[in-house]
Amino acid sequence: MTGPERVRRSEPEAPLREQQQEASEDAVMTRIGQAVILLHAGDREEARNRLGEIWSEIGADGDSLHRCTLAHYLADAQDDPADELAWDLRALTAADCLGERLGEALAGPAEPHPAVRVFYPSLHLSLAADYAKLRRPEEARAHLARARAATGALSDDGYGNGVRAAIARLERRLAAEAGPAPRPFPEQA
């Protein structure tokens, strides 16, 4: 067949391909979600294995949203605080890449896209907690300040309030661990 008849039959193929691509991408997020359920149920090892398998499939150059989500949850599945930090840093890098890509496409390169800004309070909070576990309080405070500064992107809902409360808890903990201020030398008193 040639002419208009052929065109009409091929037009539905493009949307079908797009739907298949979206379904494929949703399948990755579904698999991530299934592994996160295991993680929250306490099966850290199986969650870590499944998330790691997905990471191997998408690779370090895969979709930024997938990498950010995977790395964020892979961090939570780690037993070693240094490994947790490494995964949280990967999540932040992926969010930066996603923000740059969306920002350039929609708003220009100056600011991350609003849809990505909502990630930063949690990402920086996770990094602050990692640094606190590693007894690196200055880095912890720096990321905690970034988390606090980014909370304007959060909604006034359960998630946003939960992140803000977690920031406040870690701020109190770091303040309590700081101990008394250093005493001056005798000649400075």
TrEMBL record:
This is Tetratricopeptide repeat protein. Residues 1-20 have a biased composition (Basic and acidic residues). Residues 1-27 are annotated as: Disordered.
